[in-house]
Amino acid sequence: MLRVLTAALAIASGVIVLLGYFLRQTFPILEQLRLLLTDWAIVIAGAAVLVGILNLVSVQMEKLRSRQPGGLYGALLVFALVITFGLGLVLGTDHIFLRTAMEAVIVPVEASLLAILAITLVYASIRLLRRRTDLMSVIFLAAFLIFLVASMPKPFGPIPFVDQLILDVMATLSTSGARGLLIGVALGTLLTALRVLFGIDRPYGGN
User: Fold this and answer.
1) Using alpha carbons only, what angle is made at residue 90 by residues 86 and 91, rounded to the nearest 5 degrees?
2) Do residue 87 and residue 62 come from a single domain?
3) Are residues 168 and 148 part of one domain?
4) Which of 176, 149, 173 lies closest to 163, judged by CA?
5) By Cβ atoms counted within 10 A, which residue in 32, 54, 149, 166 is the most buried?
6) Domain match, 108 and 181 both
7) Which residues neighbour 31 within 8 Å (Cβ) at sequence distance 6 or greater?
8) Is 206 contained in some domain?
């Protein structure tokens, strides 16, 4: 009985939100219900994030208390979390000090991750050539190396026209690939939503 009730509530909520998008001019009540359900979902998602943060703090403090490996890093994580959260509450998220502090941490981390990603791609492409030498492997390695050389700073300065041409071509290709991935993600999300809407999949209460 409980599974039937949860399935009915989930399907009804999905139908109301869906109809609220398409029939908001004809039936204003559906638009109001859609906004209400969306606000509830945002509140529930925020509560879930807080529960996840509390669980993270609990796990890291337990590692520190039991002297497990990595406990010191966990304590540093909790300390940074508390300080950032406190400053956000006191100063506000748009305060110049908080934004500067966040950028001072986030920008170097992003740069380091991108550098690691570049090295990993070179290593992976070389291993790919060792395992399977075909045209696509050679194209992948050549395209990556050309893009890397064109985008990296050079001691003698950029090559006129060539660097910009390579970056423009790569930007076009990467934008097309990113849009294709986003379309695939959108179609997969739509299919999953339809399966939940019709009750085929029930992640909220089991099958």
Assistant:
1) 110
2) yes
3) no
4) 149
5) 166
6) no
7) 20, 24
8) no
